[in-house]
Amino acid sequence: MKTLFIECNMGASGDMLMGALYELLSDSQKESFLKTMNSLLPSQILLQASPAEKCGIWGTKMHVVILGQEESPAEDIASSHFAEHSHAHHDETSTFGHLHTSYPELLARIDKLPISDSVKDHAKSVYTLIGNAESLAHNTDISQIHFHEVGTLDALMDVVGCCLLIEYLSPEQIIASPIHVGTGSVRCAHGILPVPTPATAEILKDVPIYAGNIKGELCTPTGAALLKHFVSQFIPMPPISVERTGYGMGTKDFESANCLRAFLGSLNALPVPSPRQLPGSFSPGMMKFQAEEETRPDYYTEQFHSLDQILELSCNLDDMTPEAVAYAVTLLREAGALDVYTTSIYMKKNRPGTLLTVLCNITEESRFSRLILTHTATRGIRIQPCYRRALDAQYRKISTVYGEITIKISTGYGISKFKPEYEDVAAAARQCKVPFQTVYDTALEICRKSL
């Protein structure tokens, strides 16, 4: 599966992300990208890609020249920061005077750009994330947010550039590491703000972040919004066969290399017969695939998902009765665990014991760990991240000579499986006074012929 992994060990900003994605392109694509970007507003903006070095690592620094003058470094990692140039964060006595753009005007400007509708839609969605965060941070309506003209043009290049680059790369899924946001404070026009700034913190709700020990703002609102919009999972780097690596360089120097790294490669997974459609993705063959799907029965509809990351919680039990273990297993299943099972094991001094294993979603780890610690005798739980790929499940009722039987239909990746549900089969067998297997085989045969 074609996968883009973004490493955010030094945070993220729009121009750093753009530089890293730019390095993943072929030479001809790089030329095409710069030509397209410099044709958007030719009399106002010039985008340049230059080699840059940080701590012995070479990558690309994206330079935005606006109205004949390059953007000036900000107080943080000196990437083209959306918020630093907003009405709330920019000194209105700047060289360019009192030029401001409202949020509706900004969306209208994007609509007029000579780019694809997909890139426009993504860019507007990213700006909406930032605008909503700014409005909450400043306790005002999004329509009242105004952005300084120079900052608007600067951030516009970052946002549109990243959206266009993802269209060029066309990954089937985008994942990223937890985001290093930095620590300390950052100075703005109205005073000193904590890191992350209120707007960045608002955007990064429900995203795993950490402060680290580097003083400064490492993640900007623009970088945060781009990641929040495009990334499906924020997890440590999974097993990927890397084909290309890109480095997007920041401006400031730290003890760690101030760069964002992007990997393009293949996730070691089962082959998928058609590209996965991300929300609003750029997969060129998807329209044809969707048209073909319209002619299929709805239970054959194949949805292609990324690998799900789940957690495996386990513990060894040697001082509980079988009845107590069975109670804990039942309780965990009823609580919504993805699966619960036990394995017979031998422990110290060859004592017989039980290995309890619980599968759950990442967000449910705390709840299930507490249930295990409460309802079993264990004093500790092992937590192991793992990946899974699952078929989609639907349920249908079919008519048989023994009554209606519910069928579980599992589909995906060109695979179809049918299974009569135990409860319906058992109830029909008891009522009709026939063997369980007779009802089961009858229902299964009808499935094979009619579904």
Describe this structure as you would to a colleague.
By secondary structure, the chain is α+β, with helices and mostly antiparallel strands. The chain folds into 3 domains: 2-267, no CATH class; 308-387, Alpha-Beta Plaits; 392-450, no CATH class. It contains 12 helices and 23 strands. The chain has helices at 14-23, 27-37, 103-111, 117-137, 149-169, 198-203, 221-230, 286-293, 322-334, 365-375, 422-432, 436-450; strands at residues 2-7, 45-54, 57-66, 69-70, 100-102, 146-148, 173-176, 179-180, 182-183, 185-188, 191-194, 209-210, 216-217, 233-234, 240-249, 259-267, 308-317, 339-346, 352-361, 382-388, 392-400, 403-412, 415-420. The strands form 8 sheets. It has a 5-stranded mixed beta sheet with strand order 14-7-1-16-15. β10 (185-188) and β11 form a beta hairpin. The chain is elongated, with a radius of gyration of 27 Å. Residues 72-99 and 269-305 have low confidence and may be disordered.
Layout of helices and strands:
Layout: E1 2-7, H1 14-23, H2 27-37, E2 45-54, E3 57-66, E4 69-70, E5 100-102, H3 103-111, H4 117-137, E6 146-148, H5 149-169, E7 173-176, E8 179-180, E9 182-183, E10 185-188, E11 191-194, H6 198-203, E12 209-210, E13 216-217, H7 221-230, E14 233-234, E15 240-249, E16 259-267, H8 286-293, E17 308-317, H9 322-334, E18 339-346, E19 352-361, H10 365-375, E20 382-388, E21 392-400, E22 403-412, E23 415-420, H11 422-432, H12 436-450
Parallel strand pairs: 1-7, 7-14, 8-12
Antiparallel strand pairs: 1-16, 2-3, 3-4, 5-6, 9-13, 10-11, 15-16, 17-19, 17-20, 18-19, 21-22, 22-23
